[in-house]
Prior knowledge:
alpha+beta; 16% strand
Amino acid sequence: MYTFTVDGSIYDETQLNKTQIEQLIRKHNNIASKFRKNMRYYEADHAIKGRKKKNKKAANNKVVCNHAKDISDTATGFFMNSPISYGVYDKEDTAGIDRLTDAFDTADTDDVDSDNAHDMSVCGVAYEYVYVKEDTTDLLVRNIEADHTFLVYDDTIEQNLLFGVYYYRFKDSITEKFCYRATVVTKTYIYNMILECNGNNHQDISEPYENHLGNVPIVEYRNNKLCIGDFEQQISLIDAYNKITSDRVNDKEQFVEALLVIYGSLLGDDNEEVSEAMKILKENGLLELPLDARAEYIARTFDETGIEVLRKAIKEDIYTFSHVPNLTDENFVGNSSGVAMEYKLLGLQMITGEKEKYYKKGLKRRIELFCNFLKLKAISVNPNMVKITFTRELPKNLNELAQMIANLSGKVSNETLIEQLPFVEDAAGEVEKVKKENDDNVRRQQQMFKFENDKPFREDEEDEDTSEDTSASDKNSKLDSSKNH
């Protein structure tokens, strides 16, 4: 992934260098061809569709087997199949996180997260734009196209973020020249400008207005360090699989349209008689020949078994090198234990862990922007105290989980054991419920076996009875002594 940098020592966000921005846009537009190619493959627009016929009579089927979409959808669903949850490291500070999550709900961040995860899988990188909704005081988040967006950093070793650019190309209706319309966002200002593609006559559409979010409101989410899509490096294998499948269909079609060869006879003396004979043959499926004559079809033979072995090998390589399992493979969906299933998903978990690492990095910037905006409303939220949690609903073997919990009972806390159950959301609350149910059961049993005159035994009552017996004996001894006197 190419990183766009400029000389930070001469950068001034109040006076942007529009010529420099146009050069950056041109460079990014060339790099973005990779994003557009990946998107075409996801949309089933593969290279096989541009294949031409070898000759006029040859069959030319163009079969598209869209493994790209299957890989991307599986990886995206595994990564973002459940909404991201937010908490705090300090459990006493929950008021601020509630206001932050309310702002996220208003901005529909769950939908944006799904769109970002999809773009990450397909293009290798995703971008979102955080902005204030017009005529309101609410923040909104929108997923924007990766092939039209990039960030610019300074040229220091820290690579501090300077500004972000969102652009698109259009043709001016008056001058009939191609221009770029760009929105450039810095930490303090937002510019809307038109940049002519000839390097001249650059202009701002309107006066720049202030950015109140305290940082560049474009957030980048990388799929991995090099911004490689989940199926990007398997495109050549996908093309090979499409060719094999198309050629097999072509061979079948050409076999049906094989040539009929007649030995020792003629269908007619001229073209007219031959055409009439062929018409009768197609309609009736019957051919009358002399005694010594014979007829047979000439068809190209092909090794069906060898082609099938090659097809399966290519398909296996596609999923092996992408680290995304083929969910329709009978070896994958067969009866497997929980440990065996985890081994089969190990590759997918590895790439998902990489996604999660970089997505958290982007989420921290989103949280920072929201916290800066909430501070303007006198709502204080510490972005460093926000805890980000990803959850994935994997298939679980409940029998194995129940056996594990039973074996660890008494060695691990009940709350930790209950957290392992996928259908329990609040483990601490579940422990309290179990404790309350046990107390209620004990109380009911006591009520069932209790008599009216029964009283529970207490140690303090035993002490009282002992003291009463002692005082009575003392009184009796005193009376006896008085009588003797």
